Amino acid sequence: MTTNDRGFDSYQRVRCDHWDAVARKMDSWTGWNRGYHERLTQIYRFWVAPGQRILEIGCGQGNLLASLRPSRGVGVDFSPEMVKRARITHPELEFFDADSHDLSGLTGPLDIIILSDLIDDLWDVQKVFEQISRLCQPRTRLIINSYSRVWELPLIIAAKLGLAKPRLTQNWLTVEDVTDLLNLSGFEVIRSWQEVLWPIRTPLIDRMCNKVLVKMWPFKLFAMTNFIMARPCPETPPDNPLVSVIVAARNEAGNIAQIFARTPEMGSGTELVFVEGHSQDDTYGAIQREIAEHPERKSQIHRQNGAGKGDAVRLGFAKARGDVLMILDADMTVPPEDLPRFYEALHSGRGEFINGVRLVYPMEDEAMRFFNFMGNKFFSLAFSWLLGQPIKDTLCGTKVLTKRDYELIATNRSYFGDFDPFGDYDLIFGAAKLGLKIVDLPIRYRARTYGKTNIRRWRHGWLLLRMVIFAARRIKFT
Known about the structure:
478 residues; Rossmann fold; single chain; 16 helices; Spore Coat Polysaccharide Biosynthesis Protein SpsA, Chain A; 7-stranded mixed beta sheet
């Protein structure tokens, strides 16, 4: 099947005339669509950070695109009437009268590509996905939402009653259908979820249905729209970046020599960035001596002004010169020899945020106490549900990401605030909100050989429970 088929020409002509008529009618028409589209705008504004290069295909009058505050905003629609109105309403954006099956006139790369309520109307969905792939760079995110078939009859009735836009015959693709077509077109799905249970603006009811109930079983089975976030299938880049290993060290003097001796060189080189945090032993002096004894190694030392591991890691990231950022706990419970596996997972593109997992392989005796182990299991299940991506271990100290992605997380940190003394959740929440591909990497967790843990089981457990509630409010039920 090609877009030169006679059936395609007729199909597109009918739809173009239909949407031109809808555009003219919208000048004086209102219906339940207003509440539905307001909710879609809230959802997209949560997932799309401002200041990015954004393309919306099937943009209509451009209101959703404009609401995302892009640095470059491009809208495409095959309805001349829609495009004419979009250009008048949003002159700061670019709008093109073009068919989504042929995007040869557009140039990339783009950061975000949106298909909102479009694939239901397409002649050849795979063809459109293949057109989109040409406009992508490795970090592009494709976000799609389309109607669930559960709502086929209600939408037909609403259109006949004049409560919703009239629609022609739809495709009604399932999430599995779209996932398969994305895979055939060179994309990988990161996450999928359901939204909008009650599309009509109704005080209290729409908020409860659309922000809470739709996230929960069995209510989500009756959601109006399915969302899918995808990225281009990864390719290994040719470059070998500098790697910065950030070591937050407090009362770890006995481990510093081993960190220098056992941390391998990766990429084009490895830089050790130590942040010493108010130690009561000779940690700072030990780091200084090892730096002096190893002039061949790239290394830095900084003293922490604030408190907590999270504050120390942020200082280390700010000072790091590498394009790849790694966290290594100074207690060496995660062996430095495992770091190349994290590097390969990131550099190969298989993941964009590599999270160490201590809960797969058997641990050494006394590496983790029983209640700590059970607490980690509970919180991993809770956060996997809240974030929409599987995360087996939220508090393993070893995490790896690119400096570019960390800077995006830091830029958007105000959404969550400075709430995390560990630093783990600050990164995990930020990575999830950016739509990064999170990959768990199992490691063998070792017992300490020097010093005592800084974790306080019950006090920090209570803090983690508060973070679950915080994540529910700021991520899940938004």
